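Predict the 3D structure for this chain.
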Amino acid sequence: MPSAEALTPRAIDILASLVSFDTTSRLSNLALIEWVEAYLDGHGVAHRRVPNHDGTKSNLLATVGPAVEGGVVLSGHTDVVPVDGQAWVTDPFVLTPKDDGRIYGRGTCDMKGFLALALAAVPDLVAAKPRMPVHLAFSYDEEIGCLGAPDLIAMIAAELPRPALVVVGEPTDMVAVSGHKGISTFTVTVTGKEAHSSQTHLGVSAIMEAVTLMASLSALAERLERDADPASPFVPKHTTLTIGILHGGTAGNILARECAFQFDVRCPPGQEPLRILEPFFAEVAAVDLGLKARFPEAGARIAQRSGTPGMAVEKDGAAEAFARRLAGDNGPPRVVPYAAEAGQFQQAGYSTVICGPGSIDQAHQANEYVERSQMERGAAFMARLVDWAARGE
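Done. Predicted structure below.
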């Protein structure tokens, strides 16, 4: 079995390179993909891109080992959330280890740390001449709705010998997580008619109309919390609904012509967000009719931006058992409230588990970090993975 002690510094060096690429979801990830491709080329590992529709972003799929069924997919996303407005004490795109054992940088835990560990294992996998394949599946735009993974999953299903299981490396403190909530995101756009704010009879404020709709969503969020299933294993137990982005207006004394806001709904597996939102869709339609009756150019509309299914706990799940064995995890079953591409893999018929370095408590905020001890545990996981692939269990 390869040495986890040797794999750890290799992974941290790779992590420094990955963090240096600003792959905020609004930007391209192609520079990072090119770096990974060059790294794989250096080890003789074949790879292919699965790009988005205009070629500005891409997934990456690579396989180490033979073209046989029963392999393992290591899945992770290359994009990160923005650093705008956050009070970083270090450069977020320069990996900064500190004496407290923490390694700072955007994406260190969510989730370039896992990508670095997977890539660090490549030389050992190649040298081991594995009997079972290990597939690397790196996606784009996970942070804005898991938009890249579906095409990647379709490619795996169409062109690879069927893998036995999938490990998604979202931050879990290197323990196995067997379930997550789904997420659906929506944008509401209200169009009003501009006028002087003293002449409300001559126009309509899109913001004022939007406030009413947002109040309805706030009331729905409160009802969902009241109706939480006491037996739910999630924290929080209920379906959550939050408004995350709001734009509108041009001046304080002008009736706003447009107001748009974005919200997300996060449901435990088995709950359907569109069914929950049926009354709200009807309310938006009613507002649209009312506005158009006053001013034909006005109106309201709602559009779904993304929809990612939850991951249900699998009974005797092969992926969970595999991850527990490699992670040395004998703890209780666990679920998480965040969403990931794990639900998409499971929906496609693959046994799936989440297991990766770092804590979600450090994600999406200033001074994001992963602990070196977590990278060491991840390195031990990858070393055992190499041994498994070489033995061909």
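Residues 28 and 141 are 10 Å apart (CA to CA).
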